[in-house]
Amino acid sequence: xxxxxxVKADANTEAGVMPSEQLLTEMGKFNESxxxxxxxxxxxxxxxxxxxxxxxxxxxxxxxxxxxxxETKELVAGFWLIQVKSKxxxxxxxxxxxxxxxxxxxxxxxxxxxxFGPALTPELKANEERLRAQAAxxxxxQ
Length: 142
Fold this sequence. Notes:
Elements: E1 2-8, H1 11-14, H2 21-36, E2 40-45, E3 53-58, E4 61-66, E5 76-83, H3 87-95, E6 105-109, H4 122-141
Antiparallel strand pairs: 1-5, 1-6, 2-5, 3-4
């Protein structure tokens, strides 16, 4: 099972305050343990929302809204993509993450092809697999 772990933003991440050397060291150790367990698929921190944009869709109209965005508690500061056997295992992993007071993460399961049932026809599934393989090949070329 794949899970996205969403690291919630706070006033510091939105202000562009970089983590301390100590936190980076602790996070590196945590990430290394995920890698050694074969659980880590990806993980990154994100720039503050002031450097981002949103696109609002209304029929055929597209409206671009530049950051920063209000409601810091609703924003994302980073993420992990992990593969583990269950939500309980994901929770146990994240209980060990080196976050301090007030930090919050959200754990959400990633859909697998089987979750879509008959709506994901064999043709659509084959196309999705082809696109994933193509994207992986392009990443290896870079």
